[in-house]
Amino acid sequence: MFTAHEAARHGIHSQVLTRLVRRGAIERVGRGQYRFSHGPISEHQTLAVVARAVPDGVVCLLSALSLHGIGTELPAQVWLAIPRGARPPTKVHYPPLRVVKFSGKAFTEGIETRRIAGQPVRVYGVAKTLADLFKYRNKIGLGVALEALREAWRERRFGMDDMDRYARICRVERVMTPYLEALVA
Predict the structure, then answer these.
(1) pLDDT means over runs of 10, the chain (185 residues)
(2) Structural domain harbouring 19
(3) Is the separation of the CB atoms in 78 and 50 below 8 Å?
(4) Do 50 and 61 contact (CB within 8 A), yes or no?
(5) What is the reported pTM?
(6) The domain spanning residue 109 has which CATH number?
């Protein structure tokens, strides 16, 4: 993937990009974002597009679950966390975004970086994502959070120390404790 700005730095005019799109040599994947047509298409290509358009954002909640391969939910939108007080991205028309605002450690802790289509994508780790699911259980559904928790525990994708830490950061310790106790019993 590359941007029109990057192409211009290498001396490629925007009209040349337009011609290459018409010929099918490259594809336009977003506003000012392109990819080579012959390149492999990733299952999570939309996350790379969003990461390039919103570099300060972090993939979260259902999109993070999908990226980690946990649960059965396939989100219709890319769930993206931005810092509280930041303006939501307005220039991203595709893929559709669902923006949530986190503050303090709830935003900065638990971030991992994955490479998708050559693009670094910031995403919350498994334990942080599970704590976020319980925090947003009224919007996402408690069933989704419980399914993800059971599957991640069965696959040994997180440790209890990490889970306790992120539950404390997201202020969902009391909510998660009964479910975690039932899980390990």
Answers:
(1) 79 84 78 69 74 90 94 87 88 82 94 89 96 96 94 94 95 94 87
(2) 2-36
(3) yes
(4) no
(5) 0.78
(6) 3.30.460
